[in-house]
Design brief:
Layout (H helix, E strand, L loop, with lengths): L1 H15 L28 E3 L22 H10 L4 E6 L10 H5 L3 E5 L10 H15 L8 E5 L5 H13 L5 H12 L6 H14 L12 H5 L4 E4 L2
Parallel strand pairs: 1-4, 2-3, 2-4
Antiparallel strand pairs: 3-5
Helix pairs in contact: 5-6, 5-7
Protein name: Tyrosine specific protein phosphatases domain-containing protein
Pfam families: DSPc
GO molecular function: phosphoprotein phosphatase activity; polynucleotide 5'-phosphatase activity
């Protein structure tokens, strides 16, 4: 009788403390893309997809190489004898990871809230991105430190803004900027309208096309969260 009762208690106890299924889902299609591209030759840029907090991986039995977080990127850079000095986060959310992790590793963090599918309509974000990059690159204290840039997949918003910098500042043609980015990221940009906008940006720079006024949203224009800084 006691033996049966004790077994019943153990069974109830183990059921009550069984680990819950991890309901934190990866961002849509996040696992289809390489974690990090190569640093783009002739620039400081290294594009990557958003790192995720450890809690996204609990109980999912994933290979270590698929568990990509802030520490993963820092360790990859160190193994390559390189150092990341600045990270520009283009996602429009704060739910993927704790931004203070960058400061823990001595990396400056800039948040540019960039809603999906409209970065090509936001000249205000292009200008902020270029200003942030210029300020970092022109500061001799930063030496040869790299600039990490990510959106959700490290591809479309990331690619657009890096290409705009190459076109607007480094005098690349749109075709060359797109080709270089896609080669070093390891994936093609997926939004045709972003590519068209890059070709338009080249024509504007050459004075062959008038550029429309920025169509920044009220949220982006008046919200201080559109540009956040976290320094080590």
């Amino acid at each position: 009788m006691n033996h049966s009762y004790n077994n019943h208690r153990r069974s109830r106890h183990s059921h009550q403390h069984r680990p819950r299924q991890n309901l934190r889902r990866f961002p849509d299609r996040w696992d289809r893309y390489d974690n990090v591209g190569r640093d783009i030759e002739g620039t400081r840029f290294v594009p990557f997809k958003t790192p995720l907090d450890d809690s996204f991986f609990y109980g999912k039995d994933l290979p270590q190489e698929l568990q990509f977080g802030v520490r993963s990127l820092i360790n990859m850079a160190r193994q390559a004898n390189k150092e990341i000095g600045l990270v520009i986060d283009l996602t429009n959310t704060d739910r993927y990871y704790d931004k203070t992790e960058w400061a823990d590793h001595g990396v400056k963090y800039i948040k540019l809230n960039c809603p999906g599918h409209e970065v090509d309509e936001r000249e205000d974000l292009v200008e902020k991105f270029i200003d942030v990059v210029k300020e970092f690159v022109e500061n001799p204290e930063n030496g040869t430190k790299l600039i990490g840039v990510h959106c959700t997949h490290g591809l479309n918003r990331t690619g657009y803004l890096i290409c705009r910098y190459l076109i607007d500042v480094e005098n690349y043609t749109a075709a060359d900027a797109i080709s270089v980015f896609e080669f070093y990221r390891g994936h093609p940009m997926e939004r045709p309208k972003y590519k068209k906008s890059l070709y338009d940006a080249e024509l504007y720079k050459k004075g062959l096309l008038p550029r429309q006024e920025s169509e920044s949203t009220e949220e982006g224009a008046g919200d201080s969260s559109a540009h956040q800084t976290c320094t080590p």
